[in-house]
Every structure is written in C-alpha cells, then in structure tokens.
Amino acid sequence: MSTWSQAGPRTVSEHAAAVAALLPPTGTESVALAAASGRVLAEDLTAGVALPPFDNSAMDGYAVRAAELAGASEDAPAEFPVAADVPAGRTDVPVLAPGTVARIMTGAPVPEGADAIVPVEQTDGGVERVRIREAPRPGAFVRRAGEDAASGAVVLRAGTVLAAPQIGLAAAVGRAELPVRRRPHVLVLSTGSELVAPGGTLEPGQIYESNGTMLAVAVREAGATAEQLSFVPDDVERFRAVLAERVGEGVDLVLTSGGVSAGAYEVVKDAMTGHGVEFGKVAMQPGGPQGCGRLELGGSRVATVTLPGNPVSSQVSFEVFVRPALRAAAGHPAPARPVVTARLAGSLSSPAGRRQFRRGLLDAAAGTVSEVGSTGSHLIAALARADCLIDLPADATAVADGDPVAVWLLDSP
Amino acid sequence: MSTWSQAGPRTVSEHAAAVAALLPPTGTESVALAAASGRVLAEDLTAGVALPPFDNSAMDGYAVRAAELAGASEDAPAEFPVAADVPAGRTDVPVLAPGTVARIMTGAPVPEGADAIVPVEQTDGGVERVRIREAPRPGAFVRRAGEDAASGAVVLRAGTVLAAPQIGLAAAVGRAELPVRRRPHVLVLSTGSELVAPGGTLEPGQIYESNGTMLAVAVREAGATAEQLSFVPDDVERFRAVLAERVGEGVDLVLTSGGVSAGAYEVVKDAMTGHGVEFGKVAMQPGGPQGCGRLELGGSRVATVTLPGNPVSSQVSFEVFVRPALRAAAGHPAPARPVVTARLAGSLSSPAGRRQFRRGLLDAAAGTVSEVGSTGSHLIAALARADCLIDLPADATAVADGDPVAVWLLDSP
User: For residues B33 and A86, what is the distance between their CA atoms, to the nearest angstrom?
Assistant: First the structure.
C-alpha cells in the first residue's frame, strides 16, 4: 500500500485531507450544564417550555385593567383598592376583579384580567389603596408568554459552540444536561534518546523534552483530551511496547513526534512502516517529513499521525494538520484558525515548491506582520514569541516589503 | 457611607472603576506545565540552559572539517573514514580527528573539531567510509548553542498568557512548573422565589433558574474559578445564612444576581444595605440597578458585586463590569473584550442619558452589525444567538442604517 514515498511529496492540502480522513465524527455524550462550556451541541435544542413561560411583569408596580385608567394623569390620578400582592414566584395568583389593581413585582405572573403594568414610579406606592398618575396603553410592561421563544421551538442548533449565554438559555428552558459531541481522545508520545524530563539534569548532548508537553497542551486547547505517555528513547521495541500497553478502547488518535525523517535511528518509522502507517514528504517548511495511517497494533487499528521531532516542525505540523482535523471530528463549525491578510513588514525569501509557515507577529492596527526568528525549526523561543503563522504559497520565492500575505491567527479560537 | 443613591446614577465607567477597585491583583502559585494553559505567567522566565544547549546538527549526515572538503564536488567526491557514529543523545562524543568524519543525526552534538555538516543526501551514506559530493561552507547545518536563547536570558515576560508554544518553551529550558497568577475565586449566588432548578417541574408563575449557571460558566470562561451556591428564595435570613456558611478564606468575590431593584422584596439589597455594599443606578441599559462594595459578614469583609436579576441584564452587566475586573485582577494583559467598529444594519433608537448594550450579530466580512431580538432584558434566547454587544453611547438617541457603532466581540478571548 505504501506509495507516498514513491509518488513524491504531497501538498499540504493532500496531507491535511489524509489526516482528516483518519478522524471520523465523534459521537454524542450528555454533560451537565456546568461542564458544557466550549463543547459543541450535538442535537438541536428544543424549548421544553415557552420563554417566558407565562405573561409576567417587566417592572415593579401594579397590574391593572388599562381601560379603567383611561383618564388618569399627573393632575388627576386614579385611585384603586389593591386586591392582591403578587411577588415573583407566586403560584396561586387570583383573577383581577374589575375596579381593583394588584401590586406586582418584576417577573411575577400577570393576573388574569389585567392587561397592563404601571411602574411603581408612576404611583404613590400604596399597599392597601394606590393612586396612579398615568394611563397605560394596553400591554404596557407585560412580557408575553413565548415572546422570546415558543414552547417546542428550536432555540439552539446542533453544531453551536456552547458558552455562558447558550448554557444559560438551556437552563432557562429547563435542561440540566446537554447532548454534546464527544471530545476526541489523543495519546501523545514523543521519542528521542536525547530527551530528559524537565526538572532533571542535562548531560552534554541531551535536551529537555518539550514536544510531548507542548502537543498535549495543544490537543487540549483544540478541544480534545490528551494523555501524554512517557517519552521513549529511539528503541523500536520499547516504543511498540509503550503504545501497545495504552492503545485501546476510547483512543481516537495516536500522535507522535520525532523519528520520521531520513536518519539511521528513526524509531517511529521503523516501528510503523508496513503496519498501516505511510511515511513521506509534504511540500512544506517546516515539517517536511510526515506520516499517517491506521496503525495495526495487537489486532486492532488506531488512527496515527507522526509529526517530525524538531519542536517548531512539530507544533506547526500540529496547527496545519492535526488541530483542524480534531476540531472537525468534534463537530466544530470553524475548525481552522481565522486567516487574515496583512502586509509584510520586511522581505522574505522562500524555496520554490514548498509552502512555508513562518512564525510572525501581527500588528493588527497597522495591518502588518513581521517574521519572528528565522526559518530554523529548532527556534522554540522564537515560536513562543509569535502570535501567527505567515503562510507563503509553494510557488512564492520572494515576498517584498508591503506585499500582502495570508496570516493564521494563533491566539484566536 | 451610602451616597450613590443620593448622588444619582453612576456612569458605566464610574461603576466599572468601583468594581475593579474591589479586586486587587491576585498572588502567585506554581502549576505543572500541563495545567498552565490559559494562565498568566507571574514572573519573567529565565532560561536555565541555552537553547540549543550545545552545537548540534540540523540534518542527518556527516560532521566534517570544512577545509578538508574544499575541492569536493559531484564529479570529484572526497572520501573519508567514518571515525564515529553520533546519534542524538550521545553524551560521550569524541573529538573529530583530522582526516576523518563522523556520521551524525539531527539534533546530535557536533563533535569538537568539526565545523560543518554535510547532509546524507550529498553522500553515498557510507558507514565505515563515506564519499562526499560537496564542499560545505564552514558552519553549514550547525545549530549554534544559544542561537535561540542564551543561558540566563529572559525568554518569557511576566504577564504572558501561556499556551502550547510558551509551555513548550518552558519545558525546553527545563522547567516542570511555572509561577502563574492565582485565579480569582468567585461565589455565585442567585436569588428569587420564582426559581426552580433546571430538570424540575414548573408550577404556574415559576421559571427555571438560569443566572447562577450562566454566571458560574461566565466566571470560568473569564479565567477565574466559580462555586455556584444553591439559589435562594427572596428571604433575607436564608440569603445571609447561605453566604455566611461559604464565605471565608480564598473567596475573592461574591457575585449575586437579582434582588437589587426598587421592588418590595429585594433580598440582596435588604440583606446588604448598611453592611458595606452600596446600591444605586448605573446610566445604562440593560443593567440599570447595580450594587457593589465590601460586604461585612461575620467580622470579615468580602468584595461583593450584585447584578440585576433579569438574565440579559445579569449577563451584560457581567461582561461590562465583572469580566474585565476578574481578568485584570489575574494579571491578564488584555482584560477587555476586543472592540471593533462596524456599520449598523438597520436603525436603532436609544434613550438619552443611558449607555445601551444591544445584542448583535456581526457580519465581519461585510463590516456590518445587526441587532438580535430587542431591548427586553428577559430575551435570553436572543442573547444566546448574539455574538457581540452593540455599544451605544449615553448621548445617542438615534443611530441610522450605515452609521458606525462600537461592537464588543463576545466570541473572542
């Protein structure tokens, strides 16, 4: 099946499609409202009650029959007996008898027979009798049952990303839980004999492991869940053993970094070639060497994406291929980062035939973007100062100061 | 001390300043890298090691002395014995003897004596002896120690919001934990005798509680932590009892909704007036009745903000007053929502003297914004369809189709 390496480099779009095809839409689960923030609604939400559920008062004041107040004014107030007191939450509101009014609070049910509310500020505020200084129009300050949403109406569409207002609405229509798309679960595993856990001591020739931590965080920021496995040295047997122990039900994706290029010790490539994962080049920089497929492991197959090991290559590859695929799988309506056009500050050269993703800083007010650091895929400090990626097309070889470029906004959802 | 109600309405800015003054900057705590996403770095991060920590190879290939390859070319390759094999992570790399080369992998330390790397693609890939087909320039494909960051350099500034790349950088410089600003902790309590928990059954006159759920989610989305207390009916004693039981160490803010307007049963106002909290009007719509102060409760004082009870008033007030104050307290560099200018689609009228925050839908491509729903502060379904607030200044009375308006983006961080 492995034809990628013979066929030559894939384009970014081709590899993105191959990765996306590994992640089918996730199913549905029910979560409590307090846990629904950021999740994607899985089904249309229908209002189980009308909003408001009943005619109610928009003001603190008096429920009246408007026709009985036709002549009332500042100079000629009308006086009525107060027949009832209706606080919010009163469930046994009596019918308003003609010639009477009811004292009523904001949100309280309008008594049958009443057709308008006079705000307390237009009265003397009386408790047993009240003098009213205005003639309300019928319907004044009455919130009609169902005027926000009818009972049975769809109030949120499947695919809505839930935040406080949508969750508040779900509560208002009586839902304690919501059906949401399950988050993809990702196993993150980085490889490299040179790696030492942060907090440990470096020998000469060693570096601190950063890709696994960075990718696990990025996976969670993409709305998925991540389990970061211990990173492993460049040892095929240990690599397969660590994976075999953890892959199983509930894993949607294995995500590795390192061990996929042309060197003599390419543990990921060596462990997975011939087992369902294809490796090859993508016409991009950083992130040329890539792999993906359905890894055969202990009789089952698990979607696998293998990112290169240089930290900038790994993180940029995640942004370009994995993040949009994870968000699409979870039903997110906007899986990709927002892309804007900015004018380049400075000039850049770019190799022909490879799409480049340079690290940039956007000056949104000026509409300009400038490169941070340079092309080196080890420049993680520069990556951490960037807030965007400058996306240079494969056929670009030189971009001049002031030229328009496409910019992926990394600090937007 | 209560002079607000006598002095007349506050402006939005005045009340925002009063709320912000209640929330001093939070302190610092240490969190594991995996938990640092979205947090604000509390101190400058200094690199404990240089990045890279040592000169290393950017390619799989051969470490050479460039001068010894001066004449090498496709037609006249130079041949060398391979004196050593240097995989990534090798900690005992020998000095490169003159007249020899070392096989080297990406990320592996460059042997002392070598000054360039020839990629394997420019060689025959030999293991004992190798034929090299090009003359590298000195320094070719060598990543210099410290070229990304010098040891001791500040690589992240205090105040940086941490995401995957910054957390990856922290790992790369050896940090397993980071000092971050503590998240403010908020007790959320809503009031109203008409409230029923979502999932329960409504009697006539009752509604489902939504403000507490909505505010608790909004607090967490603002980067703070929330504890949602059981909502209480309009009963001053129960209200004070619920609060007294939970307020204590570690509570930065009590946030209530409901019970602050001019009605006869204003539980929050009745419970807090004279106990350190002032109530009055803010010249805005929705959200006119507001309160804030330092509530005296059992001998201590706790910052308290009391929002009105209509759901739209409550959520808009949160956006305008509470969210920016919480984020500022946590050291966030951009506490406010992004504000853009758009052209109004349709026309709006607005009462003089009150700043209005209408719910809107932005069409970013067209540069236009239109109102969702209308001014009613009970229209929570309309609120849930909005993605922005249209901010109409207090002196505006009419805004015409096509007029520029300020828009707060609610779906941006």
Answer: 55
pLDDT higher than 50, residue A1: no
**Residue B64: which CATH number?**
2.170.190.11
Q: B88 vs A265: CB contact, 8 Å cut-off?
A: yes
Other Cβ atoms within 10 Å of B125 Cβ, number: 15
Q: What is the pLDDT of residue B413?
A: 62
**Six-digit token string for A8:** 């030559």
CA terminus-to-terminus distance, chain B:
37
Rounded to an integer, the average pLDDT of B58-85 is: 96
Cβ distance A49 to B103 less than 8 Å, yes or no, reads no
CA–CA min distance A216, chain B (Å): 8
User: Looking at the 3D structure of chain B, how many domains does it have?
Assistant: 4
Q: Which residue has the higher pLDDT, B232 or A78?
A: A78
Identity of the residue in B85, B206, B383 whose CB atom sits nearest the CB atom of A91: B206
What does the radius of gyration of chain A's CA atoms come to, in whole angstroms?
A: 32
Shared domain for A158 and A33, answered yes or no, is yes
Query: What single string gives the DSSP state of each residue in A50-75?
Result: -BSSS-EESSSEEEE-GGGGTT--SS
ipTM for the assembly:
0.95
Question: Quick one: tokens of B285?
Answer: 């719509």
Partner B, chain A 302-331, Cβ-Cβ below 8 Å: 309-311, 315, 318
Both A43 and A159 in one domain: the answer is yes
Asked if omega into A136 is within 30° of 0 (cis), the reply is: no
Question: Count of CB contacts below 8 A, A vs B?
Answer: 322
**What pLDDT shows up at residue A70?**
93
Say yes or no for a CB contact (<8 Å) between A172 and B208: yes
Spell out which residues of chain A touch residue B52, defining contact as CB-CB under 8 Å: 207, 378
Are residue A267 and residue A390 in the same domain, yes or no? Answer: no
- Name which of B86, B213, B307 to mutate to probe chain A: the one with the most chain A Cβ atoms within 10 A of its Cβ: B213
The pLDDT value recorded for residue B1 is 46
Residue type, B277: V
Q: What is the rounded CA–CA span in Å between residue A287 and residue A310?
A: 8
Is B87 within 8 Å of chain A by CB? yes
A69 and A155 share one domain: no
Measured between its terminal Cα atoms, the distance across chain A in Å is 37
Residue A371 touches partner B, C-beta closer than 8 Å: no
**Residue B254 to chain A, least CA–CA distance (Å):** 18
Q: Is B141 left (phi over 0), alpha (psi -120 to 50) or beta?
A: left
